[in-house]
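Human: I'm a chemist; would you kindly supply sequence and C-alpha cells for a protein?

Assistant:
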Amino acid sequence: MRNKPWAYVLEQKHAASYCHYCFRRPVALKDEALKRCTQCLFAHYCGAKCAKAAWKDHKIECKKLESLRESKSDIPECNIRLLARMITKLRRGERSDPPEACSPPTERTYDSLCTHADKINTSVIQITAFTFIVEKLVAFLGKENMPEDGEVLKDAYSKLIVNAMTLYDGSWPYGIGAALPLGATRFDHACKPNADYMIRDGCVIVITALTSIPSIEDVRICYCNAMEMTVQRQALLREHYYFICQCEFCLDENRDNMMRSLRCPNSKCPGVIPNTVKFLPLPCTKCGRLLSGKDEYIRDAVELMGKINNQTASYTALFEQPSTPALIQQQKNALRDLEKLYEEVKNVLSPLNVFYLKLIVHLADHESTLGWKLHLEETDAYRYYHGFSSFLAIRLVLQGGYQVNSGLLDKAEESLREAETILQTTHGIDHPVYADMMDVKNVQIPQLRKMQKLANSMGAIPKSKQ
C-alpha cells in the first residue's frame, strides 16, 4: 500500500534537513540546498513548487512560528504541531483524501478513524495530557484559530493518539516526523509484524509485506518498540491504543528472560543466564550453571541495570535544555560517566540484555571513544529481536560502513550482502539507501581491495642495495 498522509509534520531537529512538503532530503554534491521560508525561517522546501503546494497547510502556522522566533520562545513539539495541522484542515472542511492519495484506494475518512474517546474521558493520565496539550495548542495557534466546539478538539486529540504514525525514511532507525494517514491506519498491531512501513518518494507511507500474507485483513505492523520487555510494550499499547497484545512475542517468556540476561560468571563459558520477571535466574544456556536469586552476582547485576536506567535518563535530560558552554561540559562529563559504567557492565550483562543495549545505544549515538564495535553488538541485538526488517537492514548498512572505514573489507562485504537481501524487500532497489549500499559493496570495496593489494605488493619489493 502507498498512502500520502492526510496530515504530517517533521521533528524540529530535522527541520533544516528535509523538505517540509515532500520530505525530500538533498544529497550533498548532487542537489541544491533546501530553501528556507523567508517569513518563519523554520520550514524548508526544495523550491518554489513545494513551497507553493505547502502554503495551504503552512499559512497559519507560519505566522505563529515567526512570532515564536521573534519572542525567542520554544517551538511546539511534533505532536502539537501535527494536531494544529489537523485542526487547520478541519476548519477548511477537509475530512478525506483525494483519490490518488492511497493505492489501493481506501474508503476511510477522518470521521471513520477509531478514537476510543469514551475510554480517554475516564483516564486521568489522558485527561491531564489533553489539558496540557490544549494549553500549548492555544498558545501556538491562537484562540481565533481554535474550533468553537470543544468536542471537535477532543475528538481530534483522540484520533491523534490512537492513529498517528511515526515516520521513518529508511536511512536511520529513528523517526523523523509524525503523520496521520487515513488508508494506512487500517492495519492492526503485532509486536512481531508481518509487514514493514517507511516513507518513500517523498512523504508517502509504503506498507510492504515481509512474508506471504493470506489477505489484507491479516496485515500487521508494529506500533511500539519490539526491543522493550512485554510488560512495557503492553502498558504502552493499553495506555495509547486500549488493547492488551497477545501476539507471538508477548507470549514468548524466553524472549523476555533473554532481555534480562547476564553473562555466565564463568569467564570461560560463552553462555548467558536468562532471568525471569522477578530476576530469578535460569540455568546458563551453555554450561547449565544455576545461581540463586540471592547470589551476590545477581544482586550486583540488578543494581547495575537500575544504574543504567538512572544515568541514561539523566544524560538524555541534559540535551533537552538550551545549549550553553557549561551545559556542553556537563554533557561531556556525563558521557565519560556512561563510558565508565560500560566498563562495569560489559562483563556482567549479556549483549541481548535491554538495559545493556540502552547503554550502548547512548554511547554509539553520541560518538563515544569506545568506537564502532558497540554498533556490532547493536546489530546482533537487532537481528535477535527484530529479525528480517528495515531496522536490521539499516543497522547492517551502518555496520558495513564502520567496517570499511576500519579496513575490514571481508567483514564489510558480508554485512552489506546480508543488508542487500533485506533492503530489496523493505526499501526496494530504487531507494537511495539501497543504491548507496550497492555502490559501497560493488564499487568502493573492490577499489579498496586493489589499493590494499598494491600497497602490499609495494611493501614486498626488496630495497635497493644502493
Summary: The chain has 14 helices and 13 strands. The two ends are 73 Å apart (CA to CA).
